[in-house]
From TrEMBL:
Residue ranges crossing the lipid bilayer per the database entry: none
Domain NADP-dependent oxidoreductase: 46-284
Signal peptide positions on this chain: none
Stated name of the protein: Aldo/keto reductase
Protein species of origin: Variovorax ureilyticus
Amino acid sequence: MTSMTRRHFSALAAAALWPLSGLGQGKDDTLVMRAIPSSGERLPAVGLGTAVVFNNDDAKIRETAAQILRTLLDKGGRLVDTASTYGDAELVLGHAMPAAASRDKFFVATKLESPDSAELERSLTRLATRRVDLLQLHNVRHPEQSLAQFRTWKTQGVCRYVGITSTSERAYGAVESVLRREKPDFVQIDYSLDNREVEERILPLAAEVRAGVLTALPFGRGRLFRAVRGKSLPEWSTDFAESWAQFFLKYLLGDERVTAVIPGTSDPAHMADNLGAMRGRLPDAAERKRMVAFVRGL
Ligand SMILES: NC(=O)c1ccc[n+]([C@@H]2O[C@H](COP(=O)([O-])OP(=O)(O)OC[C@H]3O[C@@H](n4cnc5c(N)ncnc54)[C@H](OP(=O)(O)O)[C@@H]3O)[C@@H](O)[C@H]2O)c1
């Protein structure tokens, strides 16, 4: 490990637990927060993913989305991840965010298919904002893809951070090339307790180039819940996890290279459950190994 990487990990460890007041949860409460490597800004480590769940814009879905967003904020979260291609999700958020709270309470991440001004303008209009916090190039698949235009937008104040995303192992080679060359502020990648390829390939490089990591598909699109249906939490996990969601998310947060997890949900109660993964202790290295073995044995 280089001294830069060591320093980076120490900073992340110091920023991992951050006291939060005013939540009505008791004065000893702490939330897992992670520093964005390129800026040091602290981000609550559990956010909200919006693929599929907000596909169709109507009054009912806007109200549910506003409830989910209020829960996110009430329980100490900030990060909302969406994309220009998630059906009506940006539009739903554009209505639900102002219904829930002021724009500056949220850390808004969206994704574009290409560095195209018309696509950017469409996303900003649908999200009812003039700037996003994180602008990501969606589904990187060619090693030569450039973030030059995204960096220009960052300079112009359209976004505060730039990033890339992928959830396809076949594209990891391209992701690695773009990460190494462009050194974005963030990489968003598929990572779950039963899908850990990135521990060897993407996370070490992200730490090296100082990119924050957002974990897409933290439940494998719900696959992990289906695998444990009807089962109770193992007794050895109950002092750090109160639910299967927290078990799955805390495994990911147990890796300090992970900046935030972004589980998708259409249910405010599930949002609250997921945000519970920011509370209490995280599993240590030995417990994380045991979690992997447990899920392998299902
Ligand atoms: N290429 C990319 O950049 C890319 C690709 C895919 C995804 N993503 C991002 O990653 C996010 C997460 O992925 P995802 O939403 O597809 O899958 P996911 O987060 O792995 O799983 C979502 C599923 O888990 C269920 N769930 C959530 N919380 C739960 C809880 N506490 N208890 C029980 N069930 C729960 C949801 O059902 P309920 O609705 O009933 O809660 C939904 O069926 C996306 O929303 C998107 O923002 C990015």
